[in-house]
Amino acid sequence: MQQKDSYERLPDSELLVMQIIWQSGTSIGTGRIVELVCEQRDWSRSTVQVLLTRLEERGFIEMKKKGRLKFYAPLVKEEEYLSKETKTFLEQFYSNSYMKLIASLVESQTITESDIDDIIQIIKNAKGDEKLE
């Protein structure tokens, strides 16, 4: 499996398919992908197959045939994709400022006290500090 070095943002439809492939933890067949996608969206099998083809052409997944069946595996790690998406989001909407992002969450009251405590703990752990008392 060859890792993709750079890639563009995925449209929501392709991201949904990618998330299913990432969550499978192993190569996954077309039928199972269609089944899982159709639990969330009212799409036809051919729509899902078109999305799989696009993801393969873009280098996000690889397809291997086993007999008549097709199986897909990711070429891009979920963590790497999410990291790049987060960086782009931060740059585009918050001028690359974590402070502005957190201030926005606090001001809009979409972040709870528990979330704030968790964020403080994550920062302390990243700095190598001891756990909050």
Summary tags:
single chain; 133 residues; mainly alpha; Arc Repressor Mutant, subunit A; Penicillinase repressor fold; 2 domains; three-stranded antiparallel sheet; 6 helices; 60% helix; elongated
Describe it:
This protein has about 130 residues and is mainly alpha-helical. The protein has two domains: about 60 residues, Arc Repressor Mutant, subunit A; about 50 residues, Penicillinase repressor fold. The chain is about 60% helix and about 10% strand. The protein is built from six helices and three strands, in the order H-E-H-H-E-E-H-H-H. A three-stranded antiparallel beta sheet has the order 1-3-2. It is elongated and about 55 Å long. The chain starts with 11 loop residues before the first helix and ends in a 6-residue tail after the last helix.
